[in-house]
Design brief:
With about 140 residues, the protein is α+β, with helices and mostly antiparallel strands. It has one domain. It is built from 3 helices and 6 strands. The strands form 2 sheets. Strands 4-3-5-6 form a 4-stranded mixed beta sheet, with no helix packed on it. β1 and β2 form a beta hairpin. Bound molecules: zinc ion (ZN) (2 copies).
């Protein structure tokens, strides 16, 4: 992602709402986005060359951003249907160690499970400081 793409995202932030799951009975409009999670999506052409196809950009609110950097929570996010779910690590049956687990396929969109990718937060969030606007 280059600076001009970041600038466009930043301009859209005011009209964006958090796309993560806030539980039943919540309105998306209640959660103003403050930043984005960016996941580069690509494939390996061979052992050396990695091809970036596109970037998945997910607007997130303050609350989610805080939860993502909190080791109490792991976010499960499905690439295929964009459904997300928060897992409280202490109460989970499985051991979760990462901030985000990206799934290809989940129970809400298919029965086929296509893969699992994980991230910790460093390097995932677009760092958009106010001074970036001035530079651009
Ligand atoms: Zn949120
Ligand atoms: Zn899904």
């Amino acid at each position: 992602m280059d600076q001009s793409e970041k600038f466009v995202l930043l301009a859209e932030l005011a009209d964006s709402y958090c796309e993560l799951n806030h539980g039943p009975g919540t309105q998306r409009e209640e959660y103003q986005a403050v930043n984005y999670i960016v996941m580069p999506m690509g494939y390996k052409e061979d052992e050396i060359k990695e091809v970036m196809v596109r970037e998945l950009v997910v607007p997130v609110c303050r609350e989610c951003l805080d939860a993502l950097s909190d080791n109490k929570w792991t976010l499960l996010y499905c690439f295929d249907c964009c459904q997300s779910q928060w897992v409280n690590r202490q109460r989970a049956k499985n051991r979760y160690r990462h901030n985000i687990l990206w799934l290809r396929g989940c129970p809400s969109c298919s029965n086929e499970f296509g893969g699992l990718y994980f991230n910790n937060m460093s390097g995932v969030v677009v760092q958009m400081e106010p001074e970036l606007v001035v530079e651009a």
